[in-house]
Request: fold
Amino acid sequence: MPSNDHTARSAKQADGKAESPTAAPEDGTTPAPATTADDDARLYEPYPGAAFFHGGRHSPIVAAMGRRLEQEACAPPGLRLGPDWTRAHQRAFAAWQHTLRPKGGGDTSGIPDDVAWRALRVPRITPSPAQES
Reply:
């Protein structure tokens, strides 16, 4: 049976140095801490579903999403996206979706989808499951 050289080499870098999962990058920067699904659930608002986003919706989640879209420069300068879901929110989210899918390879309707919502990382404002118990 042939040996699996890939496995033997996986613990070494191309230059022959052993890899260390905790070693700092060679450029001197500090690596970003690893996040887990639990961290994401605790730190970021879960996707409320497409049906959540409709005319007349008033929610602090919409306001938090609006602030993130403003931070990502997806809203027109000077426009504050408040807690009421409006066409401005939809246009701003469409701009965000377009940054994620620049060649039109997916949904850019402006109605939040799960993938784009998670990428936006809206800060959690509702109680996390750990806080509710």
Notes: The helical segments are 5-9, 37-43, 60-71, 87-100, 114-120, 129-132. The radius of gyration is 21 Å. Residues 24 and 88 are 43 Å apart (CA to CA). Residues 37-124 form one domain.
